[in-house]
Amino acid sequence: MRERKCTEIRKEEIVRAALSLVEQNGLDKLNINDIATKIGLVPASIYRHFKGKDEIIMALIEFADSSLKDNLIRAKACDGTAIDKLELLFRLHVKLLREEAAIPRILFFLMSSNRNPEIKADMLTAVGSYVQQVKKLLQQGQKQGEISPNVDAMAAAMLFLGMVQPLVILGQVNPKILKDYPAKLWQNYRRSIAL
After folding, report:
1. From the DSSP assignment, how many helices (H) and strands (E) are in the chain?
2. How far apart are CA 144 and CA 85, in angstroms?
3. In a 10 Å sphere around its CB, with 0-12 CB exposed, 13-18 middle and 19+ buried, how is residue 122 labelled?
4. Three-state SS for 194?
5. Backbone angles phi, psi at 111, to 5 degrees
6. pLDDT tens, 55-71?
7. pTM for this one?
8. Eight-state DSSP code of residue 31
9. CB distance 110 to 28 below 8 Å
């Protein structure tokens, strides 16, 4: 007889399976049957934990948001200057996208689709919150005199996030890009904000 798992463990399995399927096939092809097959369940078992595909997509967004927040907590807790914290955050962000390649696919799909405006709004809220936290780190660096006061903190925060997108896109074609270019991008960014 199959062992019954608690709801939280089962939900995590479903989210992990969905992330894997999105990475392989894209968000538009995600379906309950494939998720169930991937974790060895019948589709009805998935519905015990999620009402449907949209609720699973919301869980994927929550996973991405939680991962970004965890990275922010780690970066803010590290010793060093605001620039040191930003560098760690950038490295953690790149690492996350290497390990969870489904996250940018989810973002790109939701940004280009009007299928579910509520889900799209939730993703935009998560991204906006992340950018605001990066902006605060930049402002902290300005107050400490290590980041130029002439830098527009909001523009620099958006640029910080924007550095990652080409890595992800081009890294899908050539994985070497994700290995070779993060440090070079970081150095260019650092020079653009430092005093």
Report:
1. 10, 0
2. 13
3. middle
4. strand
5. -65, -30
6. 999 999 999 999 999 99
7. 0.90
8. -
9. no
